[in-house]
Amino acid sequence: MEIIFNCPHCEQELSVDGAGAGEQIKCPTCGETITIPEKSTKGGPEMPPPTVGAPGQPINPIATSAAAKVELRLKVPDRKTPAEPLIEKPKPPLDAVAKGADKKVRVRTIRRAACMESGHDKFDEKVTACINEIGEPNLMDVHPISYEIFDVGTQKVMVDYGVIIVYRG
Hints:
single chain; mainly beta; Rubrerythrin, domain 2; three-stranded antiparallel sheet; about 10% helix
């Protein structure tokens, strides 16, 4: 018969064979030395004796089945503090955090062709508004670009320009 009891130090539920009663063991959870009690300190659910209908036949066969006699002995440890993470992510250096290293590097591309509104070139205004929105401390780099596009209306290859803005945000 098994002896089921809780460790007096960490409250971990333990189960040992009845032959080990009175022995001292180390708790597998906290490592403290404990003495195995003489009998279980945990009372399982009491099963009423099976009622018998006809001679030798139980009225409720499920009440006497092996499934009805299985006790659930699972217990989740109750912790007063949060559990430690298995893999701890290294923290960035303080000087890097002060410079904004906690922000992701992002890229924004502005093409001059996309800045044409009603025949007016609004490229400079769009680039200025973008840089003001990002903020100078977050601005990492601005790269001019030149590219070719095929204009369907004129059936010609046209050269255009723009900028790539790299920033933290």
